[in-house]
Design a protein that fits this description.
DNA_repair-toleration; 5-stranded parallel sheet; membrane; transmembrane; LRR_N_plant-typ; Leucine-rich repeat, LRR (right-handed beta-alpha superhelix); transmembrane helix
Amino acid sequence: MANRPRAVALFGLLFSLLFNLAFCKTLKRDVKALNEIKSSLGWRVVYSWVGDDPCGDGDLPPWSGVTCSVQGDYRVVTELEVYAVSIVGPFPIAVTNLLDLQRLDLHNNKLTGPIPPQIGRLKRLKVLYDPFVFIIDGPSESEMEQTARCPSSRNRYLSFNSFKGEIPKELANLRELRYLYLHENRFTGRIPAELGTLQNLRHLDVGNNHLGGTIRELIRIEGCFPALRNLYLNNNYLTGGIPSQLANLTNLEILHLSYNKMTGFIPSALARLPRLTYLYLDHNQFGGRIPDAFYKHPFLKEMYIEGNSFRPGVNPIGVHKVLEVSDTEFLI
């Protein structure tokens, strides 16, 4: 009986929230923005977006992929997930008018052109899947982190957009951003060092693009990337070496540098990263020896080294099954 008042109070609170969500008006700014997006999308999205109010109107439910929350006396759009619906054309700029947006997912479409600098207006954005990740039933933050730490996870990253141009430095205005996936596109130029000022950024993936420059340029801002755990720079055109200053990113767990044009020796300072778990160095132009400290690291599970010019005796860490076959072996 003692818990009955508490249960009644919780029921009342839940009813109040549902009542407010159902009967509050949606902010006109968000209604206008979503209707502009609706008018620019293909029929596969539009057929399920019924009515004029994206948060639902009367007996009409919210639009598919649109999540709304109550803010004061109004409803605002906080999540927009429009993926795998064959959207064709440029990034819909009207998205940048959804100023309360916390999660954006447009992956597995046919978007082209640059990401507009207006993206920096979304100050509350925490997750940006813009070519991005394949999501099943919207994983929690902890599940996303688990997937990021385990590259062999069943949840593989899929991306079918073709964004090009430079990565806009205005992304650094998204102060709440935690996960940024920009892989598998056609981005060129250098990765903006300004991204290092994002105090909450945990996962940065710009792999499989046409990016150049050096890691030294990326981490040139003092105190950069304080919360970064996973850094994917693979399959680009990065040059130069691995700077010892990279060891200042003390939360780093995954460093993926495969398939670039990097040179030089592997600095022993990198082995001082206390949480380093996966290190991908393969298919670059590194040379010399790998310091013994890497082989004594308490958490390093995998270190890929093939396709470089290391001295004899340098060995990978972990179990690797790599088969390199020369053309001559196919001659009869």
